[in-house]
Amino acid sequence: MSALNIVTAVGEDDIEKCLQIARELPEWFNEAGLRAMERDLMGETTFIAIEGEEVFGFITIKPLNGKALEILWMAVGREHRGKGIGTEMLRFVEGWARERGFELLVVKSSGDLTYKPYDETRRFYEWNGFVRIALIDPYPQWGEPALIYAKCLKRKQAERRNRAVM
Asked: Residue 60's closest CA among 77, 43, 80?
């Protein structure tokens, strides 16, 4: 993967490519989720990992307020999983958010700890520095448990300042 770029999704073609990735991952995205995703893809900021015309993955974000940003949706195509694309998209969003003054990144994931496909999702976020802050059961909009994760985006700036002082 030589020329992978992360860019803002524009137009119906990009949205359809994102939805197709999600449709091919039914372990994570059910019909209700796909409907909500389509609405969010059209109304919120979505970045795509793309090489040429092929979309490898996407991440959709929404400001919660002036300091907190939520990841609404994120997926990497099955054939491209495990290659660092998700981590690259996450790092891109973290930089984008910092540049705009956001201090906290939030994401919700399935809180059903018996459903094994989401073990991978939870490990991904935890490996990338997210901390579980709450289990809401049931989460009102979902009717099932949700884990809330958060990551402080200011920490790296503070760590840099601390290193510079030492």
From this structure: 43
